Amino acid sequence: MKDAASAAIYGSQAANGVVLITTKKGKAGHAQVTFDSYYGVQNVARKVDMLNAKEYAIIANEAAVNSGSSPIYSQHVIDSLGSAGTNWMDEMFAKDAVTQNYSIGVTGGSENSVYSTSLSYLSQAGIVGGKSLSNYERYNFRFNSEHKLFKNILTIGQNLNVAFTNNNGIGVGNQYNNSLRGAFQTTPLLKNDPLDTAGLYNQANPYYQMVYNNQNRNKNQRVIGNIYFEVEPISKLKFRSSLGIDYYNYDGQSYKPEYKLSIYAFNTNPQVTQSMSKSQTILWDNLLSYSFTLGSQHKFDAMLGTSMYQYGGSSLSATKTGSVFSDVEHAWVSNGTSNTATATGVAYDPDHRMSFFGRLNYNFEETYLLNATFRADGSSKFAKGNQWGYFPSVSAGWVMTNEAFMDNTSGWLNSLKLRASWGQVGSQNVSAFQYQSPITFTNTYYIFGGTEGTLTPGAYPSRLSNTNLKWETSEQTDIGFDAAFLNGKFNVTLDWYMKTNKNWLIKAPVLATAGAEAPYINGGGVKNKGVELALAYNNSIGELNYRVSVNGAYNKNTVSHIPNADGIIHGQTNQIYDNSTEFNRAANGYPIGYFWGYKTAGIFQNEQEVQSYTSAEGTLLQPSAKPGDVRYVDVTGDGAITEADKTMIGNPNPDYTFGFSIGADYKGFDFSIQASGVAGNQIVQSYRNPASKYGNYTSEILDRWHGEGTSNRMPRVTETNENWTNFSDLYIHNGDYLRINNVTLGYDLKRVIKQNFLTQCRLYVSALNLFTFTKYNGMDPEVGYGTDGFTSGVDVGYYPRPRTYMVGLNVKF
């Protein structure tokens, strides 16, 4: 549910939409036993093509010559290399990483009591590093039951889900915490030898960096459950109360051995770290509802409710250097050999909410429909006077095919419903106590007087406060229709929407002279408007049943009125390569998180082009450029290439999203295919760090400029990488793709196994992420990494989705 009127009843947690998940319930009758399983192997779908040893040496020589140095490698050495060297992409990825799942369930019950229970096991090895470095394992138990008492006047029930998870993993964050990134940058001339303690050109072995820095084990336990009762003292008057809990417990260990891989990649002392954390969420909901009819035509459903939400928790972590044992299994702080441990402990920011809400539904002859909802939400994250937010919503529907004037369309139009909605929901997505200014005592010593003296301890506010901080509001208008044609075989859903986030909760930029962190403020907004269309058709030809569905959406995203001097929320620096400047921002009138840098207009092919690239007054625009360098666009027209010429060069938000699915079944066989994609977005790709002249390149560099007419897209190579140190559209790639997500073929063996106790025995094979149609040359165009709240579409070596082939079995008794 994305429209605000439908989501309004769910409150602040629905600010970005609602996904409804229903747990499986039992049915009256004999017990049914199910067994589901699958076993599959995963591999990387596409690897980035890096230079081999010979190609690398040729490019390195060319870069040296272009920088005025002598070639590094002789022709004899280059000829001897051939295609030899280390393919670090091959070294980092594991082959045939296993994923498997087994689940057994039982459902059943009587007329007054039903139950559903299951036990399952899931494991998935990572395709980067393999099972020893990256693995996920989960044991899950679920039990639900419901009981009707006193002639259905009272209903009681419970839902319980218990999960035990063991996992270990590698770094998948930004350029500084990304195990895979080193594979893009390391020279192929370096061998994958764990005994190599020097590296090559100060570059370290990326595979063993990943091994040494990612020895960890994590255990998680989570209990999610609720108990509820519903009483109906008189017909159609119901009261329901539900008390739920979400309890989470974590216990982790990590071990970092002593190692040396280069002068920059080493650890002189073994290190053990032990971490623990726990959190709990309590949710108590109460609903009073009454349904009544006035006359025979006017139907009403009224509801009043309250909801209480409470979250809290804490964590503790301790580290010691030195270790009695040299493995992660014994990475306990008590096994550390140093005399003292470094420990930190913290209580999680509390999150307490209280909500009151009401809803009224009106139905006139199943033709005219009206819904009105009002919520009052209170949050502990805001100061007194601003803790409460009030959010109304309303929706209406008209079933036109119930009108007499539509009778002549019944032969081809089965149903047509027009609907419209408007509503607001609140968001309180900030850390607690932002309305306060916390005091810190860290590094606060000061010397009083004009001469050296005794350091005097002090304190200062570490963050500016904002007592006026209040709820962010998400407001959405939706107009659409649902239609069914050809006896329900063809269905159409169309929506036009406009969603605006008002009073956006953002961190306000402040000058460093403020002496404290910036506060959160309510400033600006984000507007999304667009159209969504879904088509579905199902039919049969004899015993062949088939289904086809297509969906698509257009969305335009715009930031409005950021209340500061320049109307900009600036992006972070040092995110995509060393010393990288701001490359994205949120600004008035632009898409959120748009890419900001220099536009280019091809490559200088010769010295004449360099000298003729002048302003209207005849001033050289790039006086230090040489043939093969990038031609930057003078956007401002002021006769110089400066920071003022940086502009929007890309948008990470797709204009279009789309997908389709096809399904069919015939005499026990079933087949389905599902696909999705996007269009109109761009990706920042930064695999190489221009601060290093010895880093490897992707094979895209083979199309570089190396003489007049050789390229007008990829600049020449140099040891100083000057064409890449400025963020420009050289880093921008189109992100359009269509992904075949799932292809499945199954057969129900019940057709050949004639046993009365067997209801189903379906054997199937599936391929996940089978193929991706895209011009993007990275591993995966569906990148989700971002460095802050509005950053997306950044690929610095993003962990790709695996391609999986699996076989599965569904059995019902």
Explain how this protein is built.
This protein is mainly beta and about 800 residues long. The chain has 7 helices and 38 strands. A hairpin with a 3-residue loop joins strand 2 and strand 3. The mean pLDDT is about 90.
Structure summary:
It is built from seven helices and 38 strands.
End-to-end C-alpha gap = 35 Å
Oligomer: single chain
> Based on CA inertia axes, which overall geometry fits?
globular
Biggest beta sheet attributes: 22 strands, antiparallel, barrel
Query: Per DSSP, what share of the residues sits in E-state strands of 2 or more residues?
Result: over 45%
The helix content, as a percent range, equals under 10%
Tally of helical segments: 7
Query: Overall pLDDT, averaged?
Result: 92
Structure summary, number of beta strands: 38
Low-confidence stretches: none
Radius of gyration: 31 Å
Tell me the structural class. Answer: mainly beta
Protein topology:
Elements: H1 4-7, E1 29-44, H2 53-66, H3 75-81, H4 88-92, E2 97-109, E3 113-125, E4 135-149, E5 154-168, H5 181-185, H6 206-213, E6 216-234, E7 237-256, E8 259-260, E9 266-267, E10 271-294, E11 298-321, E12 342-347, E13 351-364, E14 368-379, E15 388-399, E16 413-427, E17 439-440, E18 460-461, E19 472-485, E20 490-502, E21 505-507, E22 520-522, E23 525-541, E24 544-560, E25 568-570, E26 584-587, E27 594-597, E28 600-603, H7 607-612, E29 630-632, E30 647-650, E31 656-666, E32 669-679, E33 682-685, E34 732-734, E35 737-748, E36 760-774, E37 794-795, E38 802-812
